[in-house]
Design brief:
The protein is mainly α. It has helices at residues 7-12, 60-82, 88-101, 103-118, 124-136. Bound molecules: zinc ion (ZN).
Length: 137
């Protein structure tokens, strides 16, 4: 699978899993706490509906949890490498600070991973969407 049509690209670039062109989240900044969670309802390019059904994103909590565990392990290892003989509370403080600061990132990554589990790249989706719109005009 090439980078051009990979799910990893969709997660890392905040792009639609179906066409890889439209954006999933409205704003690129994850540290704007009022707007980081705002999503488009449909893809602007292919019309894909991101929330398949009510409560679809409850499952994204599992993906977000996995991302959070990855951040925690990475922070633990970095703390160990930087301060080798340190008390346990330094690890706890470091992990808490990293998880709080990166909470918007784990939220978004969880949703993007969850969307990509259930949808794959479909180059024909954009063409079908454009033809459908032309028929209505
Ligand atoms: Zn799309």
């Amino acid at each position: 699978m090439a980078w051009k049509n990979s799910r990893v690209r969709s997660v890392l670039t905040n792009s639609c899993p179906t066409c890889l062109e439209g954006k999933v989240f409205k704003y690129n900044s994850i540290f704007n706490l009022k707007k980081f969670d705002k999503m488009h309802e449909h893809c602007s390019e292919c019309g894909h509906k991101f929330e398949k059904e009510n409560g679809f994103f409850y499952g994204a909590m599992y993906a977000s949890y996995a991302v959070t565990v990855a951040f925690s392990v990475a922070t633990f290892v970095l703390t160990y490498l930087i301060y080798q003989d340190t008390p346990y509370w330094v690890y706890i403080i470091n992990i808490l600070v990293v998880l709080i600061v990166l909470a918007p990132l784990s939220y978004r990554a969880g949703r993007l991973i969850w969307i990509n589990i259930f949808n794959g790249y479909n180059p024909e989706a954009k063409i079908k969407h454009q033809q459908k719109n032309q028929n209505y005009e």
